[in-house]
Design brief:
Number of helices: 1
Largest sheet: 6 strands, mixed
Helix content: under 10%
Shape: globular
Radius of gyration: 16 Å
Strand content: 25-35%
Amino acid sequence: MRLPALATILALVPIAASAHDIEAKRDPKVPAPFDIVHASATTDGRLATFIMEVTGKAGKLKPKRTGKLAGAKVDAYVWPTKLDPSAAGFAKASGILALAITAHPDFDDTPLFDENGDGNPANDGAGWHSHWVVLAEDKGCTGGLKVRDVSPGQDLLPATAPGLPIALDSPGMSPLIKGRTVKITVPVQGAESVNFDAVAAKLQVHRETKAPLLCVTGTYKVASGNLSLPGVITRQTK
């Protein structure tokens, strides 16, 4: 599936607050670990919790290791939002701010964290881990979007960004993947009433390691069906 143009996504009118969660029908053509049937998001004003439910065992499928960065594939559970990228420390109005839980056995983009607990923070990536990313339109990507290319040291990036030439942050927030559910809680201000969507996505590093460095190559499933961001982050109730 090719995703809609960036301008179309950003211009969408916010949905009324009554349409809080996103419901989707089962699709037997989609691998069960990526067959999204429900998505929700809440906030207490300081922390926001994003949840995705699938028909199979969440996190069961991951890309196969190839042993090289060029052409490396990435699988991801992604919540695109209408939060401004500045909410996560990126340049204001620089694209679509999305929260992603990814797995990619061919490279490590979390140098500050040791996800697999082996004492070496430089050999991770195969396990599911979290990122904030900024997506931008690029017709050179088969999915129509890329993780925005940047120049570290020149473009505004969060303090925990790994230093790659893309708008990606590695803040070390651990996802919770259990049964059919993918869940993550992140610190973010101003999330209440913001629209979001849920996507099981495929990405790939450019085979020649040049811009666009990381493309969205397609999707397993978009919860809304058309990336219309119909979900609404609601105020958490006790």
